[in-house]
Input
Amino acid sequence: MATTGPESVVRRYYEFVDADRYDELVELFAEDVYYERPGQATIEGRGALREFYESGRPLEDGTHEIHSIIVEGPTAAVRGSFTGNRYGEQVRFGFADFHEFEDEVITRRYTYTDRDEV
Output
């Protein structure tokens, strides 16, 4: 997959997750990806990541609005907001995501929000 750097990859990530394009989404990640969300189980591996997006994610029918992206070395930090549904209830909240890269793929991801579960 041709890419043009971490900022482009993370922008595609949010585009793909909002459009439920999980085949393309998981291709942005390393096979042994590590995804940490404080207070929740860590997701390890591309298969577990796909399962999370297909059936374990409590958010749906939403969109991410990116407020800023800062790339420093192999890390892209993203600040934004999400608007959508969580268990059928309309929600809006801010988030900060950190994506660590190696060879143009995301190897580690960390999400922080003001919600207990995302």
The domain at 6-113 is CATH 3.10.450.50 (Nuclear Transport Factor 2; Chain: A,).
